[in-house]
Structures are given as C-alpha cells and as structure tokens.
Amino acid sequence: MTEEEMYVEQFRTWREEMDLLLKQIEGDIETSKKKIELNLKQRQLHVERVNIGVEEFNKWAETSNVETRMEPLMIDVEKRKKMERHEDVKDGI
C-alpha cells in the first residue's frame, strides 16, 4: 500500500467515525428532547396532584372552622413559553 493509499484509507476511516459520532449526537439530542417532554408532563401531573391536596385541605379547613388556607401551585407560564421558544430556536423553527 502506498503512502497516498494509506492516507486515503485513514481519512476514509476517520470520516466514517465522524459520521457515526454525528448519528450518536443526533440520537442524544432526540433522547434529551423526549426527556424534556416527559419532565414537563411529570411537572404538570405533580402540580395537579399537589393542587388536589390543597383543595381538599382548604375544604377541610373551611368545614372545620380553621382559618389557614393554602394557595395552589402555579406553573410559571412565561418561563415555560421562554423554554419552548428556546427549543424552537435550537431546532431551527
């Protein structure tokens, strides 16, 4: 094998490695997007569960003549919109 052939083969092999690395990075991005999606859903469900408890507590407090009331949890809608816009920009949308 000549020096030129070795260089061509070495570069071809390096290029294949770079293609595999790119596929891996793209897969990592997709996995991360899915994790974010699932975390947002978990957060939503968590807030809903807490708010059910708060509602039950407030009903109990009212019927028990207890003055203490709890405020429901709120998701920061502006922060969520900003996160979604950031994802859209990164995706090129």
Structure report:
The chain contains two helices and no strands. It is mainly α. It is rod-shaped and about 95 Å long. The chain has helices at 3-63, 77-91. The mean pLDDT is 90. The protein starts with a helix and ends with a helix.
Question: Can you give me a brief rundown of this structure?
Answer:
The protein is mainly alpha-helical and 93 residues long. It has helices spanning 3-63, 77-91. The protein is rod-shaped, with a radius of gyration of 26 Å.
Q: What is the count of β-strands?
A: 0
Radius of gyration: 26 Å
- Counting helices, strands and paired strands, the structural category is mainly alpha
Query: pLDDT below 50 for ≥5 consecutive residues: which ranges?
Result: none
- Through-space gap between termini: 48 Å
The level of helicity is over 70%
Characterize the overall form: rod-shaped
What's the order of the H and E elements?
A: HH
Assess the beta-strand content as a share of residues: under 5%
Secondary structure tally, helices: 2
- Residue-averaged pLDDT: 90
Sheet bearing the most strands, described? none
